[in-house]
Amino acid sequence: MLDVSLIILCAGNSSRFELQAKKQWLRSNNSPLWLLLSNRLKKIASFCEIIITCHKDEISYMRNFSDDFLFIKGGKTRQESIINALKNINSKYVMITDVARVCVPKKIILSLLQNKEEAHCIVPVLQVNDTVIYENNTINRNKTKLIQTPQLSKTSILKKALNTNIQYTDDSSAIKANGGLIKYIQGSQKSNKLTYKKDLFFLNCIKKPSKNLFTGMGYDIHAFEENKKMFLGGVHIKCEFGFKAHSDGDVLIHSLIDALLGAIGAGDIGEFFPDTQEKYKNISSKLLLEYIVNFIHNVAYEIVNIDISIIAQKPKINPYKNEIKSSLSKILNINKQFINIKATTSEKLGFIGRSEGIAVQSIALLKYYNWKKL
Questions:
Q1: Which of 240, 255, 321, 343 is deepest in the core (most CB within 10 A)?
Q2: Is residue 99 within 8 Å of residue 33, measured between CB atoms?
Q3: Per-residue pLDDT averaged across 117-132, rounded?
Q4: b (16+ CB within 10 A) / e for 312-337
Q5: How far is CA 60 from CA 11, 146, 213, 267, 330, in A?
Q6: Where do the domains of the chain lie, and which CATH numbers do they carry?
Q7: Which of the two residues, 73 and 353, has the higher pLDDT score?
Q8: What number of CA atoms fall less than 13 Å from residue 122's CA on the CB side?
């Protein structure tokens, strides 16, 4: 096994990507790009540790995909994410790459490893072929280089170089600023960086997302509470009681959230919004659903349709069905025709039949975000 650890940076927000999905979550067949890259690099070399930095809201979800990697919370900046990851590194060398370079060729990885003892940081670069203008002045293009990742550094040197308030855009810049020795190796045009959506069509190692469909089921039940407003699907239902709950108790939205999370394999509502946290006290469930929909979009899914069954002896649900559909349509960002609301009673049987509460069952159908349609 090599005395080299690997860090893959995946904690970014893809703010320049201009799509509803984060780039690291776009699917190649069934694999998100971060997993595609991680598995490719794992096969190329026997790294002693592979660490993946994750957005704080996605770390639990990422752990569902593999037991082969160490997932840690990233930071607000690239440099902060690296510092967090380096706390878990004990190897002599560390290779760091961005998920944005998902198609980095095998020969680049091998060249970095072969040259690891030649300098404090080994960096793949490309020569500049076009004329270069800097502040309206032409400069010598033969003295310029385009820096790429992955980069391989001596761990102790990199840790020391990053112990500063100065923000560097790559590892070699930090090491060079601290007097370290840099060696440049030949990079590759195939290591195209995925920054903007147009860059997708220059990546030759990724396939279109599969056409698989994903179904989730949700169920929730709440007792009534007097002198509290009732909300169902984000709609105020006029009656003399609401729901006993930590939040506003919108049993329909709670059921729907569990269906959506079930479809993508992301657990349940309690994992995202525990009722032990004061910040969720009396919160509008519409806000919770908006968060979950944004999460679903970030991890590259689209909602196809939902089907909801409300079991209630009272109040009467039928007068509110259309308003509930309109409310959900806006939050889910799907047309009303793809939302179905059914209402029934329990024939006066049991807890619901005694008019003590309401139960809701939801089914959601999702698919991968199809970036190929752009």
A1: 255
A2: yes
A3: 94
A4: bbebebeebbebbbebbeebbebeee
A5: 13, 35, 22, 9, 28
A6: 4-202 (3.90.550.10), 213-373 (3.30.1330.50)
A7: 73
A8: 22
Better pLDDT: 182 or 242: 182
Here the tokens at position 196 are 């903007």
- The 10 Å CB-count burial string (b at 16+, else e) for 92-126 is ebbbbbbbbbbbbbeebbebbbeebeebbbbbbbb
Tokens, residue 230: 């009732």
Which token pair is 220?
A: 């929730």
- CA dist., res. 133 & res. 89, Å (int): 40
| Interval 219-244: pLDDT, tens | 999 998 888 888 999 999 998 887 88
Q: What is the DSSP letter of 280?
A: G
Cβ atoms of 124 and 115 closer than 8 Å: no
SS3 226: strand
pLDDT of residue 245: 79
The closest of 252, 233, 238 to 361, measured between CA atoms, is: 252
Taking only the tens place, the pLDDT of each residue in 294-327 is 999 999 999 999 999 999 999 999 999 999 999 9
Q: State the DSSP H helix or E strand holding residue 232, giving kind and residue range, or none if neither.
A: strand 230-232
φ, ψ of residue 360 in degrees (nearest 5): -135, 135
